Amino acid sequence: MKTTGGTDDQKRRAGERAAELVSDGDVVGLGTGSTAAHAIRALGQAVDDGLDLRGVPTSFDSRALAREAGIPLRSLDEVDGVDLAIDGADQVDEDLQAIKGGGAAHAREKVVDAAADRFVVVADPSKVTEALSRPVPVEVLPDAHAAVERDLTDLGGEPTLRRAERKDGPVVTDNGNLLFDCDFGVVDDPASLATGLSGLPGVVEHGLFVGLVDTVYVGTDDDVEVRRRE
Fold first, then answer.
1. What PANTHER family is this protein classified in (predicted)?
2. Does residue 109 have an active-site annotation?
């Protein structure tokens, strides 16, 4: 899984602390990324120790890691609800608004995270910022990518089609779609931008997570800082 910024120890502290929130019988959304991976491994150990839980993976990678860890898996359609979702973020601001999608899994992540009674973001200090400013991932239908690119430009963004590494061509998501990384500079009003992106024909999902995060666990060099939505 992709690892950028922060140290592995910081990420491990955040992921393992969040895993401690899971209770016996819970349905848990299993996020994607290097910090969420630590939570998945910790939950696998808890299952080995007798904890009863079911995991709902958000991507191919999280499903594979959860299987390796021995976590019983279900699809979202197979459960009545999600008690807790644990996921990473590419950036999270002081109001607990987040940008996700660096791993190209934000569409499935948002469905699972929004369905959860509690959504906890796990992060290292490099992901925490005063205001969101990273390019926003936008998943689009392949046949609509040219039209969406024009619409993103009209919204004030600078879209770049995400290219695959070690292969020719663009990144293709688990859903079979393409991705733009759209630079809007500093996002002063995430809610308004999220509404604008959602209204574009051909957009499957965007990486702005507005009003969804309940708590952020930030792993530091020797502890975990907890930030809660007021």
1. RIBOSE-5-PHOSPHATE ISOMERASE
2. yes
pLDDT in tens, 74-97: 999 999 999 999 999 999 999 999
Q: What DSSP state is assigned to residue 164?
A: P
Q: Is 11 annotated as a binding residue?
A: no
User: Is 220 annotated for ligand binding?
Assistant: no
Interstrand relation of 215-219 and 116-123 (parallel, antiparallel or unpaired): parallel
pTM of the model: 0.93
Count of other CB atoms within 10 angstroms of residue 186 = 9
The angle formed by the CA atoms of residues 67, 70 and 75, to the nearest 5 degrees, is: 50
Give per-residue pLDDT as tens, 153-171. Answer: 999 999 999 999 877 899 9
23 carries a ligand binding annotation = no
DSSP 53-91: EEEEESSHHHHHHHHHHT--B--GGGSS-EEEEEE--SE
**Would you tell me the crossing angle of helices 34-48 and 8-19 to the nearest 10 degrees?**
50
- 34 annotated binding-site participant: yes
Rounded CA separation 158/173 (Å): 21
Residue matched to tokens 């939950």: 43
Domains, the chain: 8-129+211-221 (3.40.50.1360), 136-205 (3.30.70.260)
Distance in angstroms (rounded) separating the CA atoms of residues 216 and 157: 28
Taken in order 100, 142, 196, 151, the sign of the CA dihedral is positive
Which one of the listed residues 109, 139, 149, 205 is annotated catalytic? 109
